[in-house]
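Note to self: keep these together.
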Amino acid sequence: MSDINYFEFYDLPLSFGIDEQKLKKKFYELSKRFHPDFYVNEDAEKQAEILELSTVNNKAFQVLSDPLKRIEYILSLHHLLADGDKYVLPQDFLMDMMDVNEALMEMEFDHDELKLAELGKQIDDLELVLFDELKQFTDEFDRREAKDAESTLLKIKDIWYRQKYLMRIRESLNKFRG
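Structure:
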C-alpha cells in the first residue's frame, strides 16, 4: 500500500491549492471507517489491513494539509525529487545567499541587534518574492494553463529548493535571536 496516491485516496484532484474543507471531511470520514477499534472481532489479516489503511489516512492528511509537504509530494509523484538529490541552485541566488551567509558569520563575532533585524528583514523580503513566484507557478499548474506542465513543475522545484535553503538560513538566524 506504500504506492497509494494520496490525492486518489481522498478522491481529490492533484493540485497544489487543495480544498481544505474537503480534505478534512474526507480525513474524518476515513478515520471513522478505518478505526481499528471497529475491527477487533475480525481476523488478524483484516485487522492488519485496517491498521495500514488508518496509517495511510493519517500520513496522507499530514502531507496534503501542509503546503510545503504537498509541494514535495507532488514533485515526488512526478519523479522530480529523489533521495540524495544534489540540486544545483541558480548562480544569482547563490551570490545573494553568499552576502547573507557572510552577514550571519559576522553575527557570531558581533551580535548586533540592529544588524540582526536588518538581516531578518532581508530574509523576509527574499521569502516573499519566492512565495509570490511559487504562487504564480502553482496557480498556473492548477489551472492547467501550462502547455508544458513539466516545465512549470521544474520551476516549482527550483523555488522549493530555494525556499529550503532560506529556511536553513532562517534557522541559523533564529539561533542568534534565542
